[in-house]
Design brief:
two-stranded parallel sheet
């Protein structure tokens, strides 16, 4: 990604903060040519040839006959992980909170989005 012009969300966006942190940790410089929030807007900017971006797998439309559709590549190294936090209001029944957490974890697992690997 460091070799490409990038279309990214604006600073302060959680995804952008994650990308900035990973680039900094690896001593990489970014060439941000466009800052735009919204997955679909970034996808459309990439489809228009403006640059490359990082999207979650579920943000990429199904295969299209459109020849202008962007090429999708998976980042191999370093893998990026976006944490998901679950919070509950004070006084919520602990058994209910536990069951809700189990349902969310199961749904994420079904989507192939398991916990961050240890390492």
């Amino acid at each position: 990604m460091a070799d490409h012009p990038l279309v990214l969300p604006a600073p302060g966006n959680p995804l952008r903060d994650l990308i900035d942190r990973v680039f900094d940790e690896h001593g990489l410089a970014m060439n941000v040519v466009l800052e735009v929030d919204g997955q679909h807007s970034r996808y459309n900017a990439v489809a228009s040839g403006i640059g490359a971006t990082i999207l979650g797998a579920h943000s990429i439309p199904a295969a299209s006959p459109d020849a202008a559709a962007p090429v999708v590549r998976r980042i191999v190294s370093p893998d990026l992980f976006r944490p998901i936090f679950v919070g509950f209001r004070r006084g919520l029944d602990e058994a209910l909170a536990s069951r809700m957490t189990a349902i969310l974890k199961s749904a994420l697992s079904d989507l192939g989005l398991g916990p961050e690997p240890s390492g």
